[in-house]
Write a structure and sequence with these properties.
135 residues; mainly alpha; Glutaredoxin; two-stranded antiparallel ribbon
């Protein structure tokens, strides 16, 4: 939270850890519809800025609507588990790659897990030989 404040972001830490599997499944549908970015921003806003439980179906359906997705299709995807296997596969691949935290970033050969200060990200980029000014 302190890193967010340093760059002027206001985040609310929800008093719960949601089950994010349905949100990840809905994200796969959004990706297929070409609306992943809109959905991604909306789900993060709901969780981090509005402290909503993205594990609840009604919250996800509102996020889907706000993202311009077909709410009935999202509901159908969640009911049928259409993307459950794909989400599980992605999770297993991440674990096998040594990724255990959220968020995680791979910059060059560096795996950065969790919220990191700007200086850590900058060092990872600079270690790749990139000289362009990053500020």
């Amino acid at each position: 939270m302190e890193y967010a404040e340093e760059v002027g972001l206001k985040l609310l830490r929800p008093p719960f850890i949601p089950c994010s599997l349905p949100a990840l499944e809905a994200a796969e549908y959004a990706r297929e519809q070409g609306k992943f970015d809109q959905y991604h921003l909306a789900v993060f806003k709901a969780y981090w800025e509005e402290a909503k439980n993205i594990g609840f179906r009604d919250v996800l359906l509102q996020v889907a609507q706000d993202s311009g997705l077909d709410v009935k299709e999202v509901e159908s995807c969640l009911d049928s588990g259409r993307y459950a296997k794909l989400v599980k596969q992605h999770s297993e691949e991440a674990k096998q790659s040594g990724i255990g935290g959220i968020p995680s970033y791979i910059i060059g050969y560096h795996l950065l897990e969790g919220a990191q200060p700007y200086a850590v990200c900058r060092r990872a980029v600079e270690s790749m030989g990139i000289k362009r000014k990053l500020e």
